[in-house]
Amino acid sequence: MIKTLRAHPLARGLNFDDPHTTHIRLTIIQQKKFLRQIYQEWYRALAASLPSCEGAVPELGAGAGFMADYIPDLIASEIFYTPNYPNIKVVTNGMRLPFPAASLRGIFMTEAFHHLAEPRLFLPRLHAACGEAV
Description:
The protein is globular. The chain is an alpha/beta fold. It has helices spanning 2-6, 19-31, 33-49, 119-122, and strands spanning 57-60, 74-78, 90-91, 108-109. It is built from 4 helices and 4 strands, in the order αααββββα. The model has no long low-confidence stretch (mean pLDDT 79). Helices cover 29% and strands 10% of the residues.
């Protein structure tokens, strides 16, 4: 009941994993100035935390986010394709990343980790290109 009460009226009762819901979440973020500012501040901090070495920077579950505005070489990915999200560059499952071992400069996930079926198997597979923890 609490989950229903705290849901935004536009998203109340919708399937969280439905691409249509993702589009509504983007609308909510764009309309709520304070929420958008929180995302902007967070994205700036994440961009500043990236190591300076070479390597791919994927975002898993990019959905309604706009992190690519702060990390120009970001590879936004999602588990579904929809033409409403031209920022999505790769459609992939987090358990089968299309990147060679030790090729990542970093990896970002916003509200996506809990969607991994087996997170204990996911984490050991990540290797940074510059010898730092991803």
